[in-house]
Write a structure and sequence with these properties.
This is 50S ribosomal protein L27. The protein is mostly helical and 144 residues long. The chain contains six helices and no strands. Helix 1 packs antiparallel against helix 5 and helix 2 runs antiparallel to helix 4. The chain starts with a helix and ends with a helix.
Length: 144
């Protein structure tokens, strides 16, 4: 079961990154170009929200079924002294939860805006910051 969840988490991450990059670039380009907010923009931002939340749920399940979770009891307070354990047990989960929270906040805030410019700017800011956060804590050595 662990391997299935790990593979699902890893492959779903490609979808999350792909759609988050698309949503961020779309909002940035349309915002700077002064274009109108459309139904397509709404669908892209909503799909980004959905796939990122699914990834978060898969990640939470993986966190608790992973062999690495036992490092909390093995290392005790020394988890922060071990860079690999700190990445997998603290940094990666925390920063990605913050990233998904930023996506959620951006999506919620953009719905309350009345003009296209404000909607696109809100999505661009929150989704781009979330993208930077998520990219900063991906365990790249695990992927390649």
């Amino acid at each position: 079961m662990y391997e299935i969840i790990l593979n699902l988490h890893s492959y779903w991450a490609y979808l999350v990154l792909f759609i988050l990059i698309i949503a961020s670039l779309n909002a940035l380009i349309k915002s700077f170009a002064g274009k109108e907010y459309s139904a397509k923009d709404f669908r892209i931002s909503l799909f980004t929200l959905i796939v990122s939340h699914i990834q978060l749920l898969i990640g939470i399940i993986l966190y608790f079924v992973s062999e690495r979770f036992s490092l909390w009891s093995e290392l005790g307070g020394k988890v922060m002294g071990n860079s690999l354990a700190r990445l997998y047990l603290v940094e990666h989960p925390l920063v990605n939860i913050i990233g998904v929270a930023l996506i959620t906040i951006g999506y919620s805030k953009h719905k309350k805006k009345l003009t296209s410019k404000a909607k696109l700017r809100t999505i661009a800011i929150f989704y781009t910051i979330a993208l930077v956060f998520i990219l900063s804590r991906i365990p790249w050595q695990q992927w390649f």
